[in-house]
Design a protein that fits this description.
elongated, about 160 residues, four-stranded mixed beta sheet, four-stranded antiparallel beta sheet, 5 helices, single chain, about 25% strand, alpha+beta, disordered N terminus
Length: about 160
């Protein structure tokens, strides 16, 4: 075992990081929306329509990437988009996939919970809060790698 593996995790290190980028289908829709901007201009000028269409495609794809939230566990915090919470206020995370995810996002939806979810991601994590001053019962976060997120939260909680 190396020295790095024997040492406890640094609470300031990044334990998990992922950007919730759109699915392939969403990228196609975004590109088509950008192209429509150019198609509208075809009666005026084909060259102008082509330039505006290409700029529109690039702009829509850039917006798709920039508007995608980042889920991160670092520095003793869970960060989901613009929101963040100390891991010491969190309880044991629950991995959600398949029918569990469908239930939490459907009939078991908690309106008071903090949600950082994306419709094109069908798995995630639900983390109950252990804070009597906060009316939020839990955080529900989409993740393409929910097992990694659960493990990172467990490691971060053990480190504090």
């Amino acid at each position: 075992m190396t020295d790095a593996a024997a040492r406890p995790a640094d609470p300031l290190s990044v334990l998990h990081r992922e950007r919730l980028l759109p699915s392939v289908g969403t990228w196609v829709v975004l590109a088509l929306l950008g192209a429509v901007l150019g198609v509208v201009l075809v009666p005026l000028s084909t060259t102008l329509a082509l330039v505006v269409g290409l700029v529109g495609i690039a702009a829509m794809c850039a917006l798709g990437a920039l508007m995608s939230p980042v889920v991160e566990v670092s520095g003793g915090r869970l960060i989901a988009g613009r929101a963040q919470i100390e891991v010491e206020l969190l309880e044991e995370p629950e991995l959600l996939a398949g029918e569990d995810w469908t239930r939490v996002m459907g009939t078991g939806f908690e309106p008071l919970a903090h949600h950082c979810t994306r419709g094109w991601i069908r798995s995630g994590v639900r983390v109950p809060l252990n804070d009597d001053d906060d009316p939020t019962p839990a955080w529900v976060v989409s993740s393409r790698r929910p097992q990694d997120l659960v493990l990172a939260l467990q490691v971060a909680r053990a480190a504090v």
